[in-house]
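Structure, all two chains, one model.
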Amino acid sequence: MAGALSLAWGVTAHRPALLRQVLRSFSVTAVRNQETGAAVAAASIDSRKSPLILDEKFPDSNSIVVPREAWIETLDTSAASTQVGLIHLHPQVFGANPRLDLIHENVTWQKKFRMVNYAHTKVRSEVRGGGKKPWPQKGLGRARHGSIRSPLWRGGGVTHGPRAYTTHFYMLPFSKRLQGLTATLSAKFAQDDLKIVESLDMPSDEAGYLEQLCENRRWGISVLFVDDSDIMPRNITLASDTLRHMNLMPVYGLNVHSMLKHETLVLTVAAVRRIEERILYHFRRPDLPKENMKRFRM
Amino acid sequence: MSAGVCSLVTLRCVSGLRCLKAAVSQRAVHTCPAALGITNLPAGRHTIPDSRAQVETSTAEWHYVERLFPLKSIPKPTVAPGEVTPSGWVAPSAKPGDHPYFVRRSPSHMIPVYLHHIPHISKYRTFVSHVEGDVFALLEELREYLQDRKHTRILNMRAHEPHQKIEIKGQYVAEVREFLLERGF
């Protein structure tokens, strides 16, 4: 770091354009210390010999469905083992029935509620001309017409055509949005497309590292990383910055469309617990019917 | 309080801001645990009159405030499984695994049997929701039970496995509830 500092002073005196680059290297080195701190913590996890076992029993679930079990993995390929522990997932959230109808309704809603149709046609009053009666009503042996812009005429107005700025906004009932999330999470988990990681800390900030990692673990091309916090670790942010098929998302942005869009969904342990807490709260809240009756808030 | 404010205002009117500062001594922002966030506010320069400098932090009566919060979920009555409460509500006693099927209680701890009524065509349907496990086993047992009880020739019922529901044509809410209570759900 001291070497980089002296080099930076020598270079920036002559070429101010390099200043930004140097500063960037500073910030990276500064953060790398944190990341190495995280790596040290990960190493301590390896060295503590006892794997991370989060085997909650969920006695409140009161369901025939047993808690789902999943491996906890690590994004650090230098670790001794890919799997660092085991986690139990709440059966009401990750073991729900895969309601395909609700998943479809959610996807359709997400496509439609933001859609605005710009197609536009003119009615007979908006087409230019057509004010004069083209020929007298009687006496010519021709059909009676009052305007050359009538919808019957070529070049006339359009009846019941599309009119611009037609919004397709509507709100899906709250319970359906809720069940859509559990159905999608459960379907992804049942298809082995949902992975749990300890954290999103990685030892490298290169895109190739992330691509190689996902390829080695058969995660497919598109991967969605979800963390509890919306301030992501710097290395995975840099690595996924140029990869448009690997995306980061906080828990509050989780949605059905994105989960289906990506082949694999990677959740951190904190994200799993936060998702369970939020969804179970909404399932059990006493004013859920009131929430369903509410149309939407602008 | 209002008298103090009035005097401050008159002070400001008479001799301006300098006199006001003299009247109210400038002191550091109060930093008790409850007021830590006050430093994040955009205007960080607060003046607290000396008469109100002493603030006591007490959490003794906080549970009275907690009582006012809306409930996050409906609390489950603390009674033994199978016990009948004076209101007629029965605590569920069946455990997962007792039967090939399992009927969860609703979030309000009631038996999830509902009557759907379409008035203008006088159509009644009875629904059992939250049926986990073998829906069809429950359907057959329910069919036998209802036929014994109601002596109906035709029982129009179906199981909807993906939705975890059973639908019966007609009004059978009381009978289905009795059936489920017998099974301990």
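Chain B touches chain A at residues 70-74, 92, 96-97, 101-102, 104-105, 107-108, 132-133, 162-164 (CB under 8 Å).
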